[in-house]
Amino acid sequence: MSGASFAPVPLQQDSDTVLLPERVADLTGLGELGVAGELVAAFIAAFFVGNLMLAMTGVAGPWAKRKITAAFTDRIAVNRIGPFGLFIIVADAVRLLSKELIIPENADRPAYDLAPIVVAGSAMLGFAVIPMGSGIQLADPEIGLAYVFAVSGIASVGLVMAGYSSSNKYSLLGGLRAVAQNIAYEIPLVVTGMSVVIFTGTLQLGGIVEAQTEPLITLGGFAIPAWYAFINPFAFGLFLVANFAEVGRNPFDTPEAPTEIVAGYQTEYSSVYFVLIYLGEFLHIFLGGAVIATLFLGGPAGPGPAALGIVWFLVKIWAVFLLTQWLRSALPRVRIDQMIEIGWKGMLVLSFANLVLTALIVGMIA
Amino acid sequence: MIGLLKSMATTMKHALDGNTFTVEYPETAPDVSPRFRGVHKFSQERCIWCRQCENVCPNDTIQIVTDDQRNGEQYNLHIGQCIYCRLCEEVCPVDAILLTQNFEFTADTKADFVYNKEQLKAVPWYKDIDPLESREPDRGAWIGEGEGAVDYQ
Amino acid sequence: MSTGLEPRRQVGVDVETTEEELEELIGDRALARDDHKNAPGFVIRPDEVQDVLFDLRDEAGFDHLSCLTAQEYADRYESIYHLKKYADPTQEVSIVVPTTSDEPTSQSAEPVFRTADWHEREAFDLVGIDYEGHPDPRRILLPETWQGHPLSLDYNQTKPQVVSLTEHANPIQPDQKGAESDTMFLNIGPHHPATHGVLHIKTVLDGETVADVEPDVGYLHRCEEQMCQSGTYRHQIMPYPDRWDYVSAGLLNEWAYARVAEDLADLEVPEYAQVIRTMGAELCRIASHMLALATFALDVYGDFTAIFQYGMRDREIVQDILEDLTGQRLMFNYFRLGGVAWDLPEPREEFFEKIRDLLDELPAKVAEYDDLLTGNEIFQVRCVDTGILEPEVAKQYGCTGPVARGSGIDYDLRRDDPYGYYENLEWDVVTEDGCDNYSRVLVRMQEVEQSAKIIEQCVDLLEDWPEDDREIQSNVPRTLKPEADTETYRAVEGAKGELGIYIRADGTDKPGRFKIRSPCFHNLSALPEMSEGEYIPDLIASLGSLDIVLGEVDR
């Protein structure tokens, strides 16, 4: 550990990758207007990425989730409005937004109002550093991975705010469960993520993606890429499970647990606030999917020209989403105490074992 | 772990086989069986005003008013109260009452569910079926009361 | 509250108790005899209830308080304890406890049978008898502030009453608002995703642990007993049993009324009709167990997930068959006194074909449920060893049906107190010894298979039934007027357990007293025993595994 430098780490490392804000600045000529112009360009780029993600949740929430669940349960689902029932998204948006916003009498006001924004916002922040391929990446800081874990962790604050400020016992239980669960699974999640960092030697997400481009082995003309899911499937599995717990999906949906605590922290939310929390949840699933894709599935890598990167990236995110819905249809929810036990006694130990093992292997090879 | 995978495999099998068991109501209305008991249909032409249906009805859905010559004046049906037990159809000696296969009817208020005999004529409750045929009404159990005489009350 | 769970002395319970032995056992305490059609009845003094019941339970092995009927006569109140043996339910005895009209106070039987707790509360609530020494003498079905007792003779039926809302308080310690308190009072229901209807569970939590549970029932109370008392025996009562356990078990409920009324009026049922009844009832059992399975999965899995839908889908197939047979999907009204309303639908071959298809597909479906539910490790972790109901406790609470059989109590009225055509068919009573939520699920799943076995045999019989012998109803008088003061209590094995009905005839064409013994009522009363000390999710799972239908609990 000699020569540790305490000099401030530059947020943006000088690299060859051209980031989206720069590209926008170049294309529109805003770059020539100095700092103000770059700021506007960055804003436009962020607006684009943010809306892409929101559009995805818009498709996922009212439409895809229903369709997928219906397929698993042998039913016909939304199919009346528009082709494949897609316009239900519009109808649902209007319906949800025009509902009355009911605020409980004893709600702790600023906290109650802020919670949905914190939940949705924390996930949006995470997408800022994800390399989505086709040149879509807002920033590529050196501490990229740490940043993603940090901002997505803010969601727990939002959940506990929602839980206690709603002045509802079910909400409180849900909020407390959410915190207990997030703490228990955040550590295995980060530790497992670190095992990837041991391979790459960098926290920068662009660098992690780049490290996975080399082919691992070539089998009969097929080059299997050096995705960490193939190099270390054990870590991949651990990360998947920890991620499901982190975003509170089945079988770890204890913070919401309908049938037990009604809807957990979101019990009292209605109308716009409900939409925000709901969007926030989907954004977190997608962010989880994005992190999984980046760390283990080679990010935007895929056959075809590099311009198709964003497509492959979205396919990977949606595959993770599909997996959450599949698990939802097939697996029972674990009890909260079992859930904590799995987290602290199982996942934590396994993730450290994985870390040590990876370190040993990397140490021996290098 | 094997159990979990089996569970997941089972649901995925259902997702992929593409079968659905729900129908697109109302475009494809589910078929009801010939014996189905839906909305009450009253035939004034057949009715002999014996009032047996009014007596047998467990919850006063049917109200009949007759004059002192026992001629029928009113036949009122509170369809919102009907429990579709079919006892009125079963008791009717002249098949003046049939429960049709129609189960779709709505009203805005409870009071709208009350029909008098004129309104009962106008209600298009029959589909193209003849419930009588499907039911082959057997009134043996009703009319033959033990060894004694037939009791029409 | 005395525990009294362990019998004071163990005697061979299988030994049959003759009437002479009963007379000897009760001895001088019997003031008179008041025999019912189903059982010998002994009239005893109101202050000797515990004494006599303890003797009957411990010396003679009457360990099952099947029902408690309370009623008011012009000159007295009366509580009737209908006792049975779990080992042999055909051995019955009725203990009749009259009390005076001006001071209707009787000793509580709660120390002897825990299930008397709820029953005596109901008797107090609806009829107005006070039980001395009762641990919790409150109303149970009606609101606390209700005036009068609806089934008493001087009650004004037409006077409306306003019920005020009061906040529920934490029964263990002052509410959570104090800094010292470390428990939290939580209302689960009356509107909650897991209560399967309008049930209110007053829960006190210590963290996530359930410290105290009290089911609060009565939200769906429709005075079904009184409705039956105002209908004629012959026709008007039969539509109502469908509406007690309304989810699918209609024919099983109808059979409860059919059995008791046929017993009361000495009616014969043609054998052909009995076979149809048996087949219909078992179809209902399949439908009901499918729904129980589906909703239990809902409680454990969380969302309206696959198993719930598959369960509904399979129940739908059964309901289609029942619709063909009876003309309705839920409210069948198919049984008649002395038989059934209709013969099998024509063309019969098509109908049989439908049933055979169902039976052929059933094993594959059960295997699928095994894959999805019972084989799933998370499901096992959730259900094994949670919601423990020991057999002795279950008996104390009068639990029956799959709940009792999941606790290893080998008790099934279809076999032990045969009716219908069950005696002549080959099938087994399913029991599991786990006493937990998992066992109760297993019992239901296996009972579906057993029901299929029964149906198959019924179809075989019906197919070959000679055409000229297809009598569906015996000759029953149009107006039934059983002799005044004939009393009987009969039970059948409903979907949820022992569904019993007590009828006292008063010489008119309507019952003088009609009392329903609801299995769900008993099973639900055991919920605190199962869930205290466990976690909230276990409480929800235990509630689901009891498979209650509030329509039957509250009547």
Automatic annotation (TrEMBL), chain B:
Domain 4Fe-4S ferredoxin-type: 38-67, 73-102
Pfam families per UniProt: Fer4_7 (PF12838)
Top-rank lineage group of the source organism: Archaea
GO molecular function: 4 iron, 4 sulfur cluster binding; metal ion binding; NADH dehydrogenase activity
Keywords: 4Fe-4S, Iron, Iron-sulfur, Metal-binding, Repeat
GO biological process: aerobic respiration
UniProt KW Metal-binding keyword: yes
CC per GO annotation: membrane
UniProt key word Acetylation: no
PANTHER family for this protein: FORMATE HYDROGENLYASE SUBUNIT 6-RELATED, NADH DEHYDROGENASE UBIQUINONE IRON-SULFUR PROTEIN 8, MITOCHONDRIAL
Protein name, entry field: NADH-quinone oxidoreductase subunit I
Organism of origin: Natronoglomus mannanivorans
